[in-house]
Automatic annotation (TrEMBL):
Repeat found in the keyword field: yes
Upper taxonomic lineage: Bacteria, Bacillati, Actinomycetota, Actinomycetes, Micrococcales
Organism: Leucobacter soli
Occurrences of domain ABC transporter (ranges): 9-244, 254-498
GO CC list: plasma membrane
Name of the protein this chain belongs to: Galactose/methyl galactoside import ATP-binding protein MglA
Location of the protein in the cell: Cell membrane
Keyword terms: ATP-binding, Cell membrane, Membrane, Nucleotide-binding, Repeat, Sugar transport, Translocase, Transport
Membrane topology: Peripheral membrane protein
Keyword Transmembrane helix in record: no
Length: 500
C-alpha cells in the first residue's frame, strides 16, 4: 500500500444533536495520508461540527474515530493534540498583545530551568515562518499585523506542533493572491510529506486546483465523496444546495443615473495618493487590488473613519468633509466592513438589536424606542434578506457567518443610505448565502442606490460591477469598463504592469 493509500483518519457514522437540531446524522469520512481532502457544504451543513468533534471540542452522540487504523476511546482536545491533529480555524486564536514568536510558542514555551528561553522561542518562530516563506518579524506585536499576516502566524502556530493531520477552515479568506500561493505551496509540501490535509473552503476553484477528493455535506448528512477529477464546480454546488442555482453572479443591466459619489484627487499620507473616480445611481463600481494596495483605506476615508489630507469628496454633488462615521452616516454613506466580527456586529446582542444599531434614533419616540415598531421593522427586513431562521430575539452569535453578514447588510439598508460601500461582502460565506447577498446588492442598485464594492474574488467583481477601479500601492493604475474587464487585465493593473 502506498503512502497515499494509507488511511490517516476514519470517522464512521458520526452523529451529533443539539437541542432541537440534528447537526450531524451518520456522517462518515475517510482521509488518506498524503491527501488533500476537501469538505464542502453550505453554512449549517455540519462541517464545523464535524471538525469540532475531530478536535475533541464536542463529543459525538454516536460513531467512531480511527487515527492511523487505531480506534480512539476517550477523545478530547488533549487527545486530539497528542494524536497529531492540527486545527487552523477561520476565527483566529491568537493574543494581540503578545509577540509573533510568543503566539507561535503559546502553551509550550521552551524553558531553561524555571525561566522561559526567549532565544529558543524566537529561533523556533524563525524556523517555522521560514518554512512558510514568510518575512514576518517574530518580535513584532501580533496586534500590529494585518489580518492576513495574523492568519499566517496562526498557521505557523499549528505547524510548530508537527501535526500528522491538519484541518484548514477557510484559510485563504483573509489572504491575498501572493500569500495564498505561499499557503498552497505549504499544503503541497505537506502532501509530499504524507500529512493528511482536510481543506474546508467556499472557494470551489481552490478546491478544484488543490484537492485530491471532495466530500459534500448537506443538512448534517454525507451526500457524496468524489475524486476531484470526476466532478465540476457546478456539480459540487448542486450537491451542496440540493438544487440547481442560476448564475452565481447575475449581471444587472441598469441605466446609471445621477452622481452619488465623486472623489477628486483624495490622498492620505502613507496610504493612497490622487484617487479620483465616481459612482452613480444604479451603478456598482468595483475596487480591485492586491492586499496593501489601499482599497480598504480608501473605503474608510469615504465613510469618515480616517481623514483625508488632500482632495475632496462629493456626495450627490455636494462637497462634504467627513471627519467621523457619524458625518458619513448623515451624508448618506454606509460601510459594511471587511472584519464583520470585529467591526460589523456585536455577537452577544440579538439580531434585532444589531439591526437597529445605526438607526436607533429614527426608531425612538421622544426618549424611548418603540419596541413594537422596532420588532416589526426588523422582522420584515430579516424575512426580506432571508435570515434563516428569522428569529430576531436570538443572539447573533448563534447564526452562521452568512446570516451574520446579511444582518450587517440589513442594518445599513435600514438606515436608507444613498451610497453603500461593501468591503469583502461575501468573504467566508457559503454559495447559497453568497447568492442571497448578491441579490440584496442588486435590489439596492435597482432602487437607485450607488454601490462601491471591494472583493478579492475577481470573478465576482468581473460579473457584478459596471466598472472596476484598480489600485496598486495606493494609486489608481486603471479604470476598466465591464466590457473590457478580464482577470488578466485586472491583474496586470493590480500588479503595477500598467498605469492610468
Amino acid at each position: 500500500m502506498t503512502v497515499q493509500a494509507q488511511s490517516a483518519l476514519k470517522m464512521t457514522a458520526i452523529s451529533k444533536h443539539f437541542p432541537g437540531v440534528k447537526a450531524l446524522q451518520d456522517v462518515s469520512i475517510e482521509v488518506r495520508a498524503g491527501e488533500v481532502h476537501a469538505i464542502v457544504g453550505e453554512n449549517g451543513a455540519g462541517k464545523s461540527t464535524l471538525m469540532k468533534i475531530l478536535a475533541g471540542t464536542y463529543q459525538p452522540d454516536g460513531g467512531t474515530i480511527e487515527i492511523g487504523g487505531a480506534t480512539m476511546g476517550h477523545w478530547g482536545p488533549r487527545e486530539a493534540l497528542d494524536r497529531g491533529i492540527g486545527m487552523i480555524y477561520q476565527e483566529l486564536s491568537l493574543v494581540p498583545d503578545l509577540s509573533v514568536a510568543e503566539n507561535i510558542a503559546l502553551g509550550r514555551m521552551p524553558r531553561t530551568g524555571p525561566f522561559v528561553d526567549y532565544r529558543a522561542v524566537t529561533r523556533q518562530a524563525e524556523e517555522v515562518l521560514a518554512e512558510l516563506h514568510s518575512s514576518i518579524d517574530p518580535g513584532a506585536r501580533l496586534g500590529s499585523l494585518s489580518i492576513s499576516q495574523q492568519q499566517i502566524v496562526e498557521i505557523a502556530k499549528v505547524m510548530a506542533d508537527k501535526p500528522s493531520i491538519v484541518v484548514f477552515d477557510e484559510p485563504t479568506s483573509s489572504l491575498g493572491e501572493k500569500e495564498s500561493r505561499v499557503l498552497f505551496g505549504v499544503i503541497e509540501r505537506m502532501r509530499e510529506a504524507g500529512i493528511a490535509v482536510i481543506y474546508i473552503s467556499h472557494r470551489l476553484q481552490e478546491v478544484m486546483n488543490l484537492c485530491d477528493r471532495v466530500t459534500v455535506l448537506r443538512d448534517g448528512r454525507h451526500i457524496e465523496t468524489r475524486d476531484i477529477a470526476g466532478i465540476t464546480p457546478d456539480q459540487m454546488v448542486q450537491l451542496m444546495v440540493g438544487r440547481e442555482l442560476g448564475e452565481m453572479f447575475p449581471k444587472l443591466d441598469l441605466e446609471p443615473g445621477d452622481e452619488v459619489l465623486a472623489v477628486d484627487g483624495i490622498g492620505r499620507a502613507g496610504q493612497f495618493v490622487d484617487i479620483t473616480f465616481e459612482v452613480r445611481e444604479r451603478e456598482i463600481v468595483g475596487l480591485a487590488g492586491l492586499i496593501g494596495a489601499g482599497r480598504t483605506e480608501v473605503a474608510r476615508a469615504i465613510f469618515g473613519l480616517d481623514p483625508i489630507d488632500t482632495g475632496e469628496i462629493r456626495i450627490q454633488g455636494a462637497k462634504v468633509k467627513l471627519r467621523s462615521p457619524r458625518k458619513g452616516r448623515e451624508a448618506g454613506v454606509a460601510l459594511v466592513p471587511e472584519d464583520r466580527k470585529g467591526q460589523g456586529i456585536i455577537p452577544m446582542l440579538t439580531v434585532r438589536e444589531n439591526f437597529t444599531l445605526p438607526t436607533i434614533t429614527r426608531l425612538a419616540k421622544r426618549l424611548f424606542v418603540s419596541p413594537r415598531r422596532e420588532r416589526s421593522l426588523v422582522r420584515t427586513w430579516a424575512e426580506r434578506l432571508k435570515v434563516n431562521p428569522p428569529l430576531v430575539e436570538r443572539p447573533l452569535s448563534a447564526f452562521s457567518g452568512g446570516n451574520q453578514q446579511k444582518v450587517v447588510l440589513g442594518k445599513w439598508l435600514l438606515a436608507d443610505p444613498t451610497l453603500l460601500i461593501l468591503d469583502e461582502p461575501t468573504r467566508g460565506v457559503d454559495v447559497g448565502a453568497k447568492a442571497d447577498i448578491h441579490e440584496i446588492i442588486g435590489e439596492f442598485a435597482r432602487d437607485g442606490g450607488g454601490v462601491l464594492m471591494i472583493s478579492s474574488e475577481l470573478p465576482e467583481l468581473l460579473a457584478v460591477c459596471d466598472r472596476i477601479v484598480v489600485l496598486h500601492e495606493g494609486r489608481i493604475t486603471s479604470v476598466i469598463d465591464r466590457e473590457q474587464a478580464t482577470e488578466e487585465t485586472v491583474m496586470r493593473a493590480a500588479t503595477g504592469q500598467v498605469t492610468a
